Amino acid sequence: MAPAAASRIAVITGASSGIGAATARQLAAAGYRVVLTARRKDRIEALAEEINAAGHQAAAYALDITDRAAVDEFATAFKTVGVLVNNAGGALGADPVASADPEQWRQMYETNVIGTLNVTQALLPALTASGDGTVVVLSSTAGFATYEGGGGYVAAKHAEHVLAETLRLEIVGTPVRVVEVAPGMVKTEEFALTRFGGDEEKAAKVYAGVAEPLTADDVADTISWAVTRPPHVNIDLLVVRPRAQASNTKVHREQ
Fold it and tell me: Rounded to two decimals, what is the model's pTM?
């Protein structure tokens, strides 16, 4: 379904790689003018150039979503926005609660939760003004079940899930949908590597023996599908896992 003229702008946070970049490509192909935000300016500028060269429309805007003043300034550029994809986030560390680094927990909460709150609050008037707005919150299956070593990330994703669920209750009756997409095991170039501080061996173990974990394109496809449903259809929550993953702690690994 092609977006209406008033809702053709889609803002994607964390668009410099992985799911964010894949989502930008798919929404651009679906007819949206995509606005790519991330801290790494060079990455999003290169992606915008790629998308524009393909005959679609994209612009890059360097942004740290934990900087509220910067987010508010960014939001002044828009009278209407059709879609906001809150993708920026990530995990840091896998230590047990007893020895976890509080600073890592703080960073995860700031990015996953406060960052999502900042951008959503700042753009909600423009999303409402479009007459057909959609807020997408990219959470995680970690937002529904915990696992050892995941306390900080799981807590942040639980909070992000609650943010989406509460917002949906609070703005019902307005022309804005709230969609939550919660991926399970996704293999991207950076997620596990960032979590383990660049340790390639530890990052590789996450996916060891799993024949086909989800890809960034798989998740972007679900986001694009949810966003392009007719305006009266709200996909409240979409949980997507690879076939090999039955739960956060039950994964089939080939020997």
Answer: 0.94
